[in-house]
Amino acid sequence: MADLAVGGRCKCNGHASRCVYDKLGKMVCDCKHNTAGSDCEKCKPYFADRPWGRATSEDAHQCM
User: Fold this and answer.
1) Are 55 and 28 in contact (CB under 8 A)?
2) What are the backbone angles phi and psi of residue 29, rounded to the nearest 5°?
3) Pairwise CA distance, residues 3 & 10, whole Å
4) Which of 3, 7, 13, 63 has a CA positioned 20 to 30 A from the CA of residue 34?
């Protein structure tokens, strides 16, 4: 699985298995693999030794 879309409103680039509502009521990804952003589109601070990449079924492409 490369992407997860929930109701067409939440695209997580393969870095989340579910979406949650943020404080403003917007659907955002529940990011894993040390990723961040509403779509898990970047690495968390201090986890940029490996550049961000979309997760695939073969490689979670975890930020390190």
Assistant:
1) no
2) -75, 145
3) 9
4) 7
Can you give the pTM of this predicted structure?
Answer: 0.79
- Classify residue 18 by burial, with Cβ atoms within 10 Å: 0-12, 13-18, 19+: exposed
Task: Break the chain into its structural domains and give their ranges.
Answer: 1-50
* DSSP summary character for residue 11: B
Question: Are the beta carbons of 22 and 42 closer than 8 angstroms?
Answer: no
pLDDT digits (tens, 9 = 90+) for 32-64: 999 999 999 999 999 989 999 999 999 999 999
CATH class of 1-50: mainly beta
